[in-house]
Amino acid sequence: MEKYKLIERSILKEFRRSIWSPFVKGVKEYKLLKENDKVAVCISGGKDSMLLAKLMQMLNRISDFPFDVVYLVMDPGYTKENRENIVKNAQLLNIPITIFESNIFEVVEYVDKSPCYLCARMRRGNLYAKAKELGCNKIALGHHMSDVIETTMMGMLYGAQIQAMLPRLKSTNFEGMELIRPMYKINEEAVLEWRDYNKLDFLRCACKITKKVEEERGVSKRAETKALIKELKKTNPLVERNIFNAIHNVQLDTLVRYKTKNKECSFLDRLE
Fold it and tell me: Residue 228 pairs with which residues in a beta bridge?
């Protein structure tokens, strides 16, 4: 049997409970897809985006309604080896990718303040623009449950705010476009287990800016948060699930102050 078929079978059998079922549940619960959508699955070359591409491809075959998928790879300035790694893995997974180039790495290389933030914004903008050019109305990113949990924790610990990562949102700069996160309910541990089970080798980090920042400033805030959650799990195995469920169960009446649609609301407003 061909390698990609074995990989697909592992998703439906060995990883049905930890990957396939949460994926399908998330797509349905958050209404991420509808009839005649055309989705650009954005592939960076890492484990998350590669798994997302395979999941979307498999769902596309059995969906109750028709929708189209484009597997979009933006080359922001990868080394030859990293680009070849993406192409090789796409072929291995039987995913027909569309590659386009940008100069993002070159632009952010000499930015001292928040290069990662600028890079992320530029990547997102380029992906939206290319997806729209290809006739897509949605882009899909490979963020998973662990990303959601870590982002929530980072906002509280380092940003002094309670802010989560949504499973879908409308673009404010590209009319008619939406961003969706179909792996919203999948834990990163399951992704790692799937990768190792199938003996796959994806890009870890292709950005030399990230490596430079880590060398200069030490461990990133996300890495610190990931380590903290790992430590908390030693005494409370449900800590990740509880944080994830918390953003689905916010009690606004107990908050001192919150914002909605750029309007600030206070508990005092209810007392006057």
Answer: none
Would you list the domain boundaries of the chain? 3-206
Alpha helix (H) ranges present in the chain?
A: 3-12, 21-29, 47-62, 80-92, 104-108, 115-133, 145-159, 188-197, 208-217, 221-233, 239-246
Query: How buried is 175 (Cβ within 10 angstroms: 0-12 exposed, 13-18 middle, 19+ buried)?
Result: exposed
CA distance 126 to 155: 26
Residue whose token pair is 């705010």: 161
Write out the E strands in the chain: 38-43, 68-75, 97-101, 138-140, 168-170, 178-180, 257-260, 263-266
Distance CA 206, CA 44 (A): 9
The closest of 107, 123, 119 to 43, measured between CA atoms, is 123
Distance CA 43, CA 89 (A): 11
Distance CA 127, CA 174 (A): 11
pLDDT tens track for 169-226? 999 999 999 999 999 999 999 999 999 999 999 988 666 556 555 555 667 889 999 9
Residue 62 burial (CB < 10 Å; 0-12/13-18/19+)? exposed
Q: What is the CATH number of domain 3-206?
A: 3.40.50.620
Strands, sheet with 178-180, edge to edge from the N-terminal-most edge strand: 97-101, 68-75, 38-43, 138-140, 178-180, 168-170
Contact (Cβ atoms closer than 8 angstroms) between residue 194 and residue 15 = yes
- Alpha-carbon gap, residue 50 to 207, rounded angstroms: 17
Contact 187, 240 (CB under 8 A): yes
Q: pTM, whole model, 2 decimals? A: 0.92
